[in-house]
Amino acid sequence: MRFVFVFLLPLLLLTACQTKEETSKSVELYNTTGDMVGTAKLLEGPDGVQVQLKLEGLTPGFHGLHVHEYAKCEGPDFKSAGNHLDPEGKEHGLMHPMGPHLGDMPNLEADAGGLVDADLMIPGATLKEGKMSLLRGEGTALIVTETQDDGVSQPSGNSGARIVCGEIKSGKGNEATESPTDPTEFNKKQEE
Ligand code: ZN
């Protein structure tokens, strides 16, 4: 009995660490008809979260990009993701004197072929626990809009319909791109 307990304890501690210390997250992005059109890689940094975004199939030109408050991408309007992520009760817009929302980001520019390859920052955000976490609750969502965000209009910069959505989810079910887990750990658990 004592052997089992001693053996279990380090396993439990290891599991706790892994869920709290996420430093990167991969997000799959889908259009309104459910086709995957890109990916976003989120990386924890000292001043915020870095977003490396790759997208295809957009109309050439500028598009808004925001983090929304719920990890629910239900097409075709993606309204299920809620409003822009705003844990501090600010106004919308990177150029608004009372802004911005935590989830407000610079516009994306799709090239003539409809491709986006962008590297952005969300200052003050984190993937760790806390008020400014992108993984708070069940997570948040990354959404691209039809037109560009004007940076000041409420509530969302007059940026048009939501056309691409990706769920930023914490914990289980979204760890394929995390550091590989040791398969023997799982087996040991099963045996107990
Ligand atoms: Zn906003």
Structure, briefly:
Helices cover 15% and strands 29% of the residues.
Give a verbal description of the structure:
With 192 residues, this protein is α+β, with helices and mostly antiparallel strands. The protein has one domain (22-175): Sandwich (Immunoglobulin-like), CATH 2.60.40. Helices cover 15% and strands 29% of the residues. The strands form two sheets. A seven-stranded antiparallel sheet has the order 5-8-9-1-2-3-7, with no helix packed on it. Strands 4-6 form a two-stranded antiparallel ribbon. A hairpin with a 3-residue loop joins strand 2 (36-44) and strand 3 (48-55). The termini are close together. The relative contact order is 0.23. The structure holds zinc ion. Zinc ion binds at residues 66, 84, 92, 101, 103-104, 156.
Give the CA-based shape. Answer: globular
Task: Enter the CATH topology name.
Answer: Immunoglobulin-like
> What hetero molecules are bound to the protein chains?
zinc ion
Q: Helices and strands: which structural class? A: alpha+beta
In what order do the strands lie side by side in the largest sheet? 5-8-9-1-2-3-7
Number of domains: 1
In the CATH hierarchy, what is the architecture at level 2? Sandwich
- Percent of residues in β-strands: 25-35%
Major beta sheet, specifics?
A: 7 strands, antiparallel
Radius of gyration: 19 Å
The average pLDDT is 87
How far apart the termini lie comes to 12 Å
What is the overall number of helices? 2
What is the helix/strand order? Answer: HEEEEEEEEEH
Helix content: 10-25%
CATH superfamily: Superoxide dismutase, copper/zinc binding domain
Query: CATH first level: which class?
Result: Mainly Beta
Strand runs, count: 9
Poorly predicted runs: 172-180, 187-192
